[in-house]
Amino acid sequence: MLHRKRLGSFRRLAVGVVMLGVAGVGMGMVWNVSTFSQLRDAGRYALPGDEIVIAPGQYHVTTALYITTPNLVFRGATGNRDDVVLYGNGMNVNSGPTECFYPAADGVELHNVTIRDFWHHGIHITGTGSSTTDGYADNVVISNVKTINCGERHIKGSASSGISRNVLIENLWMEQTEEYVRRPGHPVDEYNYIGGIDAMHIDGWTIRDSTAVDIRGVTGYSRAAIFLWNGVSDVTIERNRIVRCGHGISIGNPSGPTSDNNHTYPYHAEGGVICNNFILRRQKEYVEEEDDEKVIYNWALELDNVKDFEVHNNTIYSHAAAYGRLIEINDTGDVGKVTNLDMRNNIIRGGVKDAAVGDWSHAVLVAAGNLVDTTGAVVRTDWFVDPLAGDLHLTAAALAAIDAGVSLAKVLDDFDTGIRSGLPDMGADEFQIPSPGDANQDGKVGIADLVALADHYGLVGIPSWAQGDFNRDGVVGIADLSILADHYGDRLGGASVPEPAAVCLVAAGALCLPARRRRR
């Protein structure tokens, strides 16, 4: 049903857009769209608080979706991000819109879609004006989104002024499946100017439960899968998986911070937690480029000019354990030196390059409570489920890591959101065999676990145990529901088998519960 009063102001709307009123004080309208022109027009004409629901389909993006209205929600209708695909002309094709989705206002949310094949950026968090108050979007949410083959950044965060505050990026899958081509005349790097998430001038950002795979340039190098620099404060980077990217996580830039629009100067970054991440370093170390040999450093973790950072319980892995630059800790020039960096409970298979004023040698890191192995004799391949594929969950062989950590107030769970014991393990994974169906790992299989599964039913990619993927096949589906139903009522240390009617109620209840759109 068309809402005449609202439509009177913009007759250019595609006739097929359906606006359904939503009851409730302070709630907006729902726009159901099924063509790109409808999606584009809804983004232009919706009012704050409205929701744009995108039907399953393939949508060729012919003009960038530049969103300047605050508090709009865009979401794929089914909850499965593979069902709604917004695509451009190709990551190596410099024509048409070079970027897809611009959240250029506060409170914009994007859920349950795939964005692919753009020359520049898949998503660009930016601003509408040039003043401090207008210059950068706050409270943006990117959740359950997949970005494929974005030629410069999968997600870019930049504006000429201001600070972007309280952005949440969760359950994002970034992957490059095409070869990156040389870009002659590029002002920065014609070979390798590609990366995952790249943002500066930010505060309170959270990046969690996300995956980056094979992001790299012509010669194997790239910007980092997560690259935050030149004005970064109070960030949380947790439970992410980074697999074979040119670089892993970089906080800061070796060139040093600048004072321009940098609220943390003389530091690149001040205040942050990096915990429970899996990082698999890419193996290629050099290539022949014309007449010169170009070394490809491929470090997994870089910390430049940082202050007050906690780096805890990460698993950082190089197949070549003797590689000497798996981690780099760096000061540049006379600006802020690395200060109050706390690194504990990390598994590090590879070397640490210490380029800071302070002492960050292997011996110092070991003494601080980290496992550092540069030979491969201690942190062996059989410690992990499938290290070359980036599955760095521990096996029973990891005896030197199990129960070898110290309890930390900010790391109460692990990569899968499993509860850590009083004697926590080193690295991102807490080795345990939880009861089948026990999503929250509280020792019993019950309604809370059913709700967790229902919230994520249909999720694909690499969902976690806590999201309901009990058989670890990459899908939260009917097989996981069957596992939960089979064990409903089980308790740690003893079983309480429910009546068959209760099992039927579990199954029916899970299928009836809709996937919830979490707003933060």
Q: How would you characterize this protein structure?
A:
By secondary structure, this protein is mostly beta strands. Among the domains are: 191-380 and 388-393, no CATH class; 447-512, no CATH class. Helix content is 10%, strand content 32%. The protein contains six helices and 36 strands. The strands form five sheets. The protein has a 22-stranded mixed beta sheet that branches. Helix 4 (447-455) packs parallel to helix 6 (500-512) and helix 5 runs antiparallel to helix 6 (500-512). The longest helix has 13 residues, at 500-512. The chain is globular. The two termini are 30 Å apart.
Output the keywords.
6 helices; 520 residues; disordered C terminus; 10% helix; mainly beta; disordered N terminus; 22-stranded mixed sheet; 8-stranded parallel sheet
Q: What is the strand content? A: 25-35%
Q: Give the helix proportion (percent range).
A: 10-25%
Largest sheet: 22 strands, mixed
Radius of gyration: 24 Å
Summarize the structure.
The protein is mainly β and 520 residues long. The protein contains six helices and 36 strands.
List the helices and strands and how they pair.
Blueprint: H1 4-7, E1 18-21, E2 29-33, H2 36-45, E3 51-54, E4 57-60, E5 65-67, E6 73-76, E7 84-87, E8 101-103, E9 109-118, E10 121-125, E11 141-150, E12 153-157, E13 164-165, E14 168-175, E15 195-199, E16 202-203, E17 206-208, E18 211-213, E19 224-228, E20 232-238, E21 241-245, E22 247-251, E23 269-275, E24 278-281, E25 286-289, E26 292-295, E27 301-304, E28 306-312, E29 315-317, E30 327-330, E31 339-344, E32 347-349, E33 352-355, H3 362-367, E34 371-373, E35 384-386, E36 391-394, H4 447-455, H5 478-487, H6 500-512
Parallel strand pairs: 2-3, 3-6, 4-7, 5-8, 6-9, 7-9, 9-11, 10-12, 11-14, 12-15, 13-16, 14-17, 14-18, 15-19, 16-20, 17-20, 18-21, 19-22, 20-23, 21-24, 22-27, 23-28, 24-29, 27-30, 28-31, 29-32, 30-33, 32-34
Antiparallel strand pairs: 1-2, 25-26, 35-36
Helix pairs in contact: 4-6, 5-6
